[in-house]
Amino acid sequence: MTAQQHIFKYTKPFLTESGATLNSFELAYTTLGTLNATQDNVVWVCHAFSGNDNVLDWWPGLFGEGKLYDPARDFIVCANMLGSCYGSTGPLSTNTETGQPYFHDFPVLTNRDIIGAFDLLRADLGLKKIQQLIGCSLGGQQALEWTISRPEVIQNLICIGASAKHSPWGIAFNQTQRMAIEQDPSWQERQPEAGLSGLKTARAVAMLSYRNYQTYLATQQDPDDDKLENFRACSYQEYQGEKLVKRFNAFSYWYLSKAMDSQNIGRKRGTLEAVLSAINIPCLYIGLSSDILFPIEEQQFLAKHTPQAHYSEIDSLYGHDGFLIESVQLTEAITKYYESISVLKTK
C-alpha cells in the first residue's frame, strides 16, 4: 500500500476573503486506493494545524490496511492546506509578481479560502460528491466550513475537536504564540529560517493547550523529589519546540494560526444557530473529554443546533491531542455512528 502524492496547479487568479489575490497556487495532495465506477467511495480528510497530506504519517490508527478507512475499499484524498509547508503554496513559495518568496507578504488566509482551494481540486479530480468528509482540529473547522459552503457536494461530515467560531480563549493562545515569534530578532528578516527561535517557544506554549494539567502530571512528573532544576517538564517543552522547528517554519505557523482565528461560520451569513440549522446531511461531532483548547461544550453546541447531528465523546487523558492518540475509541465511535445512519461500510 503506497500513498500517491500529486500536485494540483491552479493557474488563474484566486481572490481571498481579505481581498488579496494569489495569481496562482499549488496544492500537494495524496490519494490512497482507487475511485470506484460510481464514485461513492470518496473519503476526504482535512488535516490538523501542522499535519500534512499523507494520513498514513499522522493518523495510521484510522487509515490503512484493515483499518476503519481502508484503501482496499475507500478512495482516500488528503490535500495539504494553502499556507502550509508540505508542498502547497505558502509564505516560502515564490510570488510570481516579484520572483521572490512571499515571506511576510503572503496574504492572510481564512478557512473559507483554504476550503475554496480544496473545492477547486475536487472539481479538477472530477468528484461530484464527497461521501465522507472528516476533519480534526483546524481541519475540523475547515470540514465544517466546506459542508456549509458546498451543501450539494458533502454527503456526510465527521468533525473532531473543532468549533463553529474560534473562541477568545483559543485566539489568545494563538496570539501569545505569535508574540513569541515576534520577539525573535530574526523574525523581520526575509529568509526561510526567520523566527525559528520564536517558533520553538510558540510550540512550547501550544503544547499547554494541546495537553492539560493531568497529562503533564501523568507523563512529566519527576521521580526525584530532591531535584531543584532541569525537571522533566522543562526538557519536554524544549524537545517539543526543537522537534517542530526541524519540520516547519515560522511563517506557515503564523499564517495558519490566523486561519484558525478566522473561524466563524456565521460571518456574513447570520447567527451560528441559524447556519447550523440549515445543514441537511448526517453529521458526527466528536469531543475530547479533557480538551481545553476546543472544549466539549463547543462540539455539543454544534450537535445541538445541527438537525441530523450525532455527538460522541472520547474519554482521553491527552486533551486536544487525543484525536491523534485514541484511535480505538475513535474507530468505535465512528463505526457506531455509521451503523446508526445505516451506511456501515462492508469489509
Automatic annotation (TrEMBL):
<feature type="active site">
    <location>
        <position position="291"/>
    </location>
</feature>
<feature type="active site">
    <location>
        <position position="320"/>
    </location>
</feature>
<feature type="active site" description="Nucleophile">
    <location>
        <position position="137"/>
    </location>
</feature>
<comment type="similarity">
    <text>Belongs to the AB hydrolase superfamily. MetX family.</text>
</comment>
<comment type="pathway">
    <text>Amino-acid biosynthesis; L-methionine biosynthesis via de novo pathway; O-acetyl-L-homoserine from L-homoserine: step 1/1.</text>
</comment>
<keyword id="KW-0028">Amino-acid biosynthesis</keyword>
<keyword id="KW-0486">Methionine biosynthesis</keyword>
<protein>
    <recommendedName>
        <fullName>Homoserine O-acetyltransferase</fullName>
        <ecNumber>2.3.1.31</ecNumber>
    </recommendedName>
</protein>
<feature type="binding site">
    <location>
        <position position="203"/>
    </location>
    <ligand>
        <name>substrate</name>
    </ligand>
</feature>
<keyword id="KW-0808">Transferase</keyword>
<feature type="domain" description="AB hydrolase-1">
    <location>
        <begin position="42"/>
        <end position="324"/>
    </location>
</feature>
<feature type="binding site">
    <location>
        <position position="321"/>
    </location>
    <ligand>
        <name>substrate</name>
    </ligand>
</feature>
<dbReference type="InterPro" id="IPR029058">
    <property type="entry name" value="AB_hydrolase_fold"/>
</dbReference>
<comment type="function">
    <text>Transfers an acetyl group from acetyl-CoA to L-homoserine, forming acetyl-L-homoserine.</text>
</comment>
<keyword id="KW-0012">Acyltransferase</keyword>
<comment type="subunit">
    <text>Homodimer.</text>
</comment>
<dbReference type="Pfam" id="PF00561">
    <property type="entry name" value="Abhydrolase_1"/>
</dbReference>
<dbReference type="InterPro" id="IPR000073">
    <property type="entry name" value="AB_hydrolase_1"/>
</dbReference>
<keyword id="KW-0963">Cytoplasm</keyword>
<dbReference type="InterPro" id="IPR008220">
    <property type="entry name" value="HAT_MetX-like"/>
</dbReference>
